[in-house]
UniProtKB/TrEMBL annotation:
Residues 108-171, 185-251, 272-340, 357-426 form the S1 motif domain. GO terms for molecular function: mRNA binding; structural constituent of ribosome. Keywords: Ribonucleoprotein, Ribosomal protein. Belongs to the bacterial ribosomal protein bS1 family. Residues 1-34, 77-112, 430-466 are annotated as: Disordered. It comes from Paludisphaera borealis. Residues 89-104, 447-466 have a biased composition (Basic and acidic residues). This is 30S ribosomal protein S1. Residues 433-442 have a biased composition (Acidic residues). The keyword Ribosomal protein applies. SUPFAM superfamilies: Nucleic acid-binding proteins. CDD domains: S1_like (cd00164), S1_RPS1_repeat_ec2_hs2 (cd04465), S1_RPS1_repeat_ec3 (cd05688). One of its GO terms (cellular component) is cytosolic small ribosomal subunit. Signal peptide: none annotated. The gene is rpsA_3.
Amino acid sequence: MPEANDQSTNPAASSPTPQAARSSAPPSSPRDAAIDEAMETALANPSQRYASSELPLKRQWDSDLDAELEAAMSGFDPKTFDVASPRAKRPERPPVAKGDRGQERSQGQAPRMGRVISVRGRSLFIDLGGKSEGVVPLDLFEGEIPAPGTDIEVVVDHFDRSEGIVHLRLKGSAIEANWENLKQGAIVEAKVTKTIKGGVEVDVDGIRGFMPISQIDLNRVEDAASFVNQKFRAIVTEANAREKNLVVSRRELLEQERAEMREKTWATLEEGQIREGVVRSVKDFGAFVDVGGVDGLLPIGEMSWVRVSKVEDVIRPGDKVTVKILRIDQVTRKLTFGLKQLLQSPWENVEETYPRGAMVKGKVTKLMEFGAFVELEPGVEGLIHITELSPTRVRRITDIVKPDQEVEVRILKVEPDVKRISLSLLPVKGQEAVEEDEEDETPPAPKPERKIPLKGGLGDRDKKPL
């Protein structure tokens, strides 16, 4: 019994030790024994466990690698080797998606200058500089093919990795359209197939599209049927492959070309130049003529030496004309053209044709409050002042002359520099007095002898002597 009490009062004696438990446990395999030993070691030294966790594994690896590298590089002298100079880094090109080929606006590819090398097959090889070459299809050239050595403006279309060739195209040329590269701003070739409500239907490389009637030309188009079966370049303004919706504009492309041409033309314009132009529009006061992308005004008074009552009688929209630059306003960028300056002026020999004091015939063309204009010949007019219409006071000019009336006038004064002739309907001064004197010198006609005696007596003959 005492032994039992001792066991109950001493717990340490009652709990078996690990060694005792391990000895009392059934025998284990060598693997399990190694695991148990490792766990006991880790639990017996907790401070060592935390110290090892403070050093990251990566830093341990770096230290080992540095030691190995230092051992391998021991005794190496870099001065004994010739190291090449670092190669200049080439500018990175933005990746061009397959569907965005030919889109210089969307990709920001500006046109660049290239020099023609040679013609091989159906391609024109171009030197782009920097040991870079490209090819342009000959089909893009409408006229004569540039000779070798000629500089032309091209745009990079895409790079063919299979052939290792840079494909180029001319600036403003159309792309081979498909739904992958039909983006806003792309230039395509469109053929008008038929007219529909609001515009025309076009065919773009087999893709059906629409062009509004307001986007066909720069000027207003009244009849779109005249454009059927015509081919021209246009700009894509809207493209939706999912909805198969394609809208193009020719007017926007023409406006871009005119803007580029306008800047080039302004740099070469000078007063007195003679230019070829096209009449864009006609107004009551004149016509607007396009010369190389620059619009100028041709006033109605500068169209002909003959008085023009209606502009359409001389020129019409679309007519090609040759004009002379009269005035240039660089501030407002306005031009004034002349057409009659290219014709012989009827005022060149007007002093010999109409000497002072000569009596000539003409036709009244216009009545004003201060007088009447008389046309002596086409392009030459003179003015009869109101004081030269009649010797008496004139209240209304229409009381003396009327439009289209044939009159005989006297030349008072000729001023060819200002293109002015003064006329008169009055006779020459002194002519009336001379005519009166001539009438006085003429003897009066004799009075007829009276055959019937006067009534009331015979006078002295009736007297009788007393």
